[in-house]
Amino acid sequence: MANLKRQKTKRNIVQALAFLLGNANVSGFVTGTIYQGPLKRVCLPGLNCYSCPGALGACPIGSLQNGLADPFWRIPFYVLGLLSLFGLLLGRFVCGWLCPFGWFQEWLHKIKSPKLKLARSHVRLHQILLQGKIAMLAGLVILTPLLLRWLTGYGITAFCTYVCPSGTLMAGIPLLLANEGLRSLAGWLFSWKMSVLLAVMVLSVLIYRPFCRYLCPLGAIYGLFNRISLYRITVDPQLCTHCGRCTRQCPMQVPIPYDGNGPECIRCGECAAVCPEGAIHIGFGSQLKKTNQACGLNEKREVEQ
Amino acid sequence: MTRPHPPIRQLTHAETRVRVLLGAVTALALLVGLLRDETRLVLQRAIQICLGCIGIG
User: What is the C-alpha to C-alpha distance for residues A158 and A148, in angstroms, rounded to an integer?
Assistant: First the structure.
């Protein structure tokens, strides 16, 4: 239990630091303006709206859509390269440790209330809903900007405009509060986006990270990299007693020994913290390699899940 | 959820090859993007308030 508490505290500190470092332009919240310096050439790894008054970097999903929507940009190689770099290095570690909107949902889930747990009868529905984020990525982030660009000459950032609750929370609300000019322009779209945000907030109290699980296109991209990312889970078969404690502890309900590096694991590390045998290692490379070499075992017995 | 013998496996050769290939493609994409000065395009969009993002459209 002490291990688990330490792990949760460590993650909370990293999440707070990631939020503060990515949104350090504090004066923007007062003046109702956004940072316009050169740091915005770089995309932040998490879903951090670049119209947030504090944001020092660009949002990768917003930049990707802009690249696809712009007829002169054509293929956004730089943004795709950055997304791939984050994915290859970290996978969904970004979701678990660096994304401000994921952190926000976790805080909401701490509110005392009955929680919706995944029942056996709901597994099929859950599996279908998990594909929602792929649909969001393919439909709103990629196809809509491309199709509209093809049909009308210029696409739109459909996901940011009609769905992204992170944009409403981090950019819409603070900017409209501080900037009277913008406040006077708010209409039906703002009401719609507030409704989406409120729905996600209510669901976050009941379900652990519902947006990350079912809707986030960035989570879908990083999920594709989870199986091959350098930062990964390793389970030692010689130590694992199949007690199932890791799977019961996992907040994303991932069966760790079987699918630890599947697309849903956000690398929170709670499985490793509760493992009584110390059989789970999370990090870069494999701890087992060193252990096996020290024990004189064949390196081929190294197991990566 | 817990099965008695987990199907533990190594990172397959195919997965390792995909990792290397993606690494190369990533490096190439970043290089092309930087040479095309796409960071300027990212900056151009990111320094303007995205009206859609904040719900004004």
Answer: 10
For residue A53, what are its two tokens?
Answer: 């008054």
**Per-residue pLDDT, A290:** 53
Write out pLDDT tens, residues A13-58. Answer: 999 999 999 999 999 999 999 999 999 999 999 999 999 999 999 9
Cβ contact (<8 Å) for A157 and B54?
no
CB contact under 8 A, A59 and B46: yes
Q: How confident is the model at residue A154 (pLDDT cuts 50, 70, 90)?
A: confident
- CA distance to partner chain B, nearest, from residue A258 (Å): 6
Alpha-carbon distance B21 to nearest alpha carbon in chain A (angstroms): 11
Closest residue in B to A301 (Cα) is B10
Phi/psi-derived region of residue A210, left when phi > 0, alpha when psi is between -120 and 50, beta in every other case: alpha
Backbone dihedral region of A190: left (phi > 0), alpha (psi from -120 to 50 degrees) or beta?
A: alpha
**Runs of H (alpha helix) within A91-143:** 93, 100-109, 123-130, 132-136
Q: How many CA atoms lie within 13 A of A236 on its CB side?
A: 20
pTM of the model: 0.91
Query: Residue A193 is encoded by which pair of tokens?
Result: 């986006």
